[in-house]
């Protein structure tokens, strides 16, 4: 193996060097030279570098062409010239030229004053070494020499490590050629290749043959790679690789000026060729990105979504005929991008040209031309949008979305998001809405227009608005303000607006904190089981919510919350209303506490299929694990009101949840189910309607069934067994694939519907290769959830 140090500036060695190859080690001998032939050399303060060679025994040297450099006294260096195809035109100007040192495995540099070059020749087997000190000067004019002497930046040294099975140095052309298992490590990346040449004059590195560039989590592969070391720019031919967005900003960034350790080379080679090229393995799925068009309430018995819209797709892979980069900006031609680790990809974006850059912290921009979305390498549709933002902050997508809200907005509507303020700490967004169904069929939901407002095409009541203000005050503290207008008719503005102001403080462990909410609500819409929709006219107070605790190794979970609020809401208790009342609203202060304990018992579990496109990942982003589980839970709630009333409840629940099949075969290979029975006990009833405990015997049932291929249908329903009344029923149909899914759901009881688009987020290790190959909150057990 050969390792050496060299200066990356134009240099000339005034003393010719003769190189001989003995049996066990390489000897470099400095041949005396008459200095009088070049007297100018005596007046120059030369730059310096270190050249260090390690040679194996002769029988270990690979049998490659030009395996022994020609003797310099023969004057034949043409055999070491770089390939003509590897030369590219350098940039017109290079400011503040840097000196770089290519150094060996000992990781130590003896260059201090940057004036003398040490040639160190070591016999690898015996450890015998010889040293020569050789003055080095530039080949440039005296003007350039003076610039180097007077420029304070020339004291800085950029360290580059080059390791390979075989290396040669053309002293006349100033070209280093490395062959066989080549690894070049520099400040912000690692290149591995079969062959690599470095032109010291032009600061240009050219690699070919299984080229891999690794920068942190970013991986770039290609057949040929041309890279300017100083400008941090280059071009890759027949490129493919991966972009990991969370660290893209750091990985694509250049060295920080004040970072003293940024230029220091690591002892560990970062680019492991075997790991980078091994077959795909450890394929895992993260949360991904989801868009929810419409209103999606939290349904009793179902796990609510963590967020209505949001998430992220962190790892993407791409392929391009030609990819140019400069710093953190990447430009490509004939680009293909996908979140699918397998080929051919199920879902991809193709574009004639593409440009990727980081525009601010946590935000990346992708600009495309002639782009389209391709499904299963067959069907394609235009994107109609050439600019995509990958925003890892909690932001709504800047796009047209479709919603459905029968009770407030008369059914189907369309909205568009506009970000008026968008900074890392402050976000202010407006969502103008056009109420399509109210205009076309105003009688579909009469309760959505109680004041019989005009519903013409351009009438104010045909428009709505959603305003959202988010302020990150500190790491643990934030503020949110939301205002929802179901009509822009200002004459009835009090009946058409719902709003919330919330101050949130995280307490304790930041990863699993207590949440303290101090909030004000105006006309908050709640759904309380058999009592249906209830509106709380006004409320203000504080709520503290605990994290979920796991009690030792018992499998028991525990959580609790407490609140103190002043509430204006409707009642049916005439004794609480004044004599000459005009409405059913009363004002009381309520203190409420709740605690929930639960435990699951795994009755049976099968094994998942392998995470391959033909098996476990055929129709789903995560291999299905068949199982049956018994779940149990107890919830206790205590509510005390300022008029002396109280509501104490205890609810026990027991049920079975599970799934069968692997969702891999074409027909009926998946069935998911849940059946839960809840029984409640109470002493008195709340004076309010919105938190009254009325459903004390409830059966919840849900089924999801694969019909054919990726098509699944299902429902989720809850019944009050005492009255036989349907509490709520949710129907859905889903088209599920490995990389994406489309879910359409509708609830006729709540008069709500939504379209849910999920984009999967995969993570993997290895080389994938080329491409061919709502505003409604439920009340449960009297507690607002």
UniProtKB/TrEMBL annotation:
Keywords: Cell outer membrane, Membrane. Residues 191-241 form the Organic solvent tolerance-like N-terminal domain. It comes from Aphanothece hegewaldii CCALA 016. Residues 66-93 are annotated as: Disordered. It holds the Pfam family LptD_N. GO terms for cellular component: cell outer membrane; transporter complex. This is DUF3769 domain-containing protein. Transmembrane segments: none annotated. It comes from the Bacteria. Residues 83-93 have a biased composition (Polar residues).
């Amino acid at each position: 193996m050969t390792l050496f140090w060299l200066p990356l500036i134009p240099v000339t060695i005034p003393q010719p060097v003769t190189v001989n190859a003995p049996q066990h080690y390489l000897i470099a001998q400095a041949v005396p030279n008459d200095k009088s032939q070049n007297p100018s050399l005596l007046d120059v303060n030369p730059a310096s570098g270190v050249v260090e060679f390690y040679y194996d025994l002769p029988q270990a040297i690979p049998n490659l062409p030009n395996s022994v450099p020609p003797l310099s006294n023969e004057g034949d260096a043409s055999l070491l010239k770089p390939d003509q195809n590897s030369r590219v035109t350098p940039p017109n100007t290079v400011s503040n030229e840097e000196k770089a040192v290519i150094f060996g495995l000992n990781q130590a540099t003896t260059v201090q004053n940057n004036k003398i070059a040490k040639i160190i020749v070591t016999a690898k087997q015996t450890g015998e070494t010889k040293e020569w000190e050789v003055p080095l000067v530039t080949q440039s004019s005296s003007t350039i020499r003076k610039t180097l002497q007077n420029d304070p930046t020339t004291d800085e040294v950029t360290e580059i490590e080059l390791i390979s099975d075989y290396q040669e140095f053309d002293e006349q052309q100033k070209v280093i050629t490395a062959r066989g298992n080549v690894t070049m490590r520099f400040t912000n990346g690692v290149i591995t290749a079969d062959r690599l040449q470095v032109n010291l004059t032009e600061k240009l590195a050219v690699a070919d043959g299984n080229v891999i560039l690794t920068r942190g989590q970013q991986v770039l592969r290609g057949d040929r790679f041309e890279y300017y070391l100083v400008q941090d720019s280059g071009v890759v031919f027949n490129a493919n690789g991966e972009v990991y967005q969370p660290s893209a900003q750091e990985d694509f960034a250049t060295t920080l000026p004040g970072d003293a350790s940024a230029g220091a080379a690591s002892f560990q080679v970062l680019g492991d060729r075997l790991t980078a090229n091994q077959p795909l393995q450890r394929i895992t799925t993260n949360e991904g990105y989801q868009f929810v068009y419409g209103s999606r309430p939290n349904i009793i018995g179902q796990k609510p979504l963590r967020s209505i819209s949001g998430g992220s797709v962190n790892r993407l892979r791409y392929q391009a005929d030609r990819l140019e980069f400069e710093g953190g900006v990447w430009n490509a031609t004939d680009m293909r991008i996908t979140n699918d680790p397998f080929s051919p990809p199920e879902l991809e974006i193709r574009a004639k040209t593409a440009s990727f850059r980081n525009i601010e912290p946590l935000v990346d921009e992708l600009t495309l031309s002639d782009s389209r979305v391709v499904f299963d390498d067959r069907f394609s549709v235009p994107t109609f949008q050439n600019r995509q933002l990958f925003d890892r902050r909690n932001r709504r997508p800047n796009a047209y979305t479709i919603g459905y809200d029968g009770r407030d907005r008369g059914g189907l509507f369309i909205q568009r998001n506009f970000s008026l303020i968008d900074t890392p700490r402050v976000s202010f967004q407006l969502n103008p809405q056009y109420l399509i169904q109210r205009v076309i069929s105003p009688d579909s939901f009469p309760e959505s227009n109680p004041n019989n407002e005009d519903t013409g095409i351009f009438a104010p009541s045909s428009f709505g608005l959603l305003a959202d203000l988010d302020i990150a005050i500190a790491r643990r503290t934030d503020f949110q303000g939301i205002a929802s207008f179901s009509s822009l008719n200002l004459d009835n503005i009090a009946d058409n607006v719902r709003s919330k102001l919330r101050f949130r403080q995280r307490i304790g462990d930041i990863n699993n904190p207590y949440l303290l909410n101090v909030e004000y609500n105006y006309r908050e819409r709640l759904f309380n089981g058999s009592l249906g929709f209830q509106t709380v006219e006004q409320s203000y107070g504080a709520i503290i919510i605990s994290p979920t605790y796991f009690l030792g190794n018992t499998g028991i979970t525990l959580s609790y919350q407490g609140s103190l609020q002043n509430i204006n809401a409707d009642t049916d208790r005439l004794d609480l209303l004044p004599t000459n009342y005009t409405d059913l609203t009363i004002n009381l202060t309520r203190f409420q506490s709740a605690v929930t304990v639960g435990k699951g018992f795994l009755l049976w579990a099968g094994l998942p299929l392998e995470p391959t496109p033909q098996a476990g990942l055929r129709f789903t982003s995560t291999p299905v694990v068949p199982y049956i589980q018994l779940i149990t839970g107890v919830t206790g709630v205590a509510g005390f009101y300022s008029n002396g009333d109280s509501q104490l409840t205890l609810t026990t629940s027991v049920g079975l949840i599970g799934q069968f099949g692997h969702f891999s075969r074409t027909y009926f290979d998946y069935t998911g189910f849940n059946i839960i029975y809840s029984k409640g006990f109470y002493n008195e009833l709340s004076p309010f309607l919105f938190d009254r405990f009325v459903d004390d015997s409830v059966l919840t049932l849900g089924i999801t069934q694969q019909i054919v291929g990726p098509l699944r249908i299902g429902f989720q329903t809850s019944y009050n067994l005492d009255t036989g009344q349907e509490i709520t029923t949710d129907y859905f149909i889903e088209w599920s694939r490995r990389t994406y899914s489309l879910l359409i759901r509708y609830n006729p009881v709540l008069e709500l519907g939504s379209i849910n688009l999920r984009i999967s987020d995969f993570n993997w290790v290895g080389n994938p290769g080329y491409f061919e190959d709502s505003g409604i909150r439920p009340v449960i057990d009297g507690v607002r959830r």
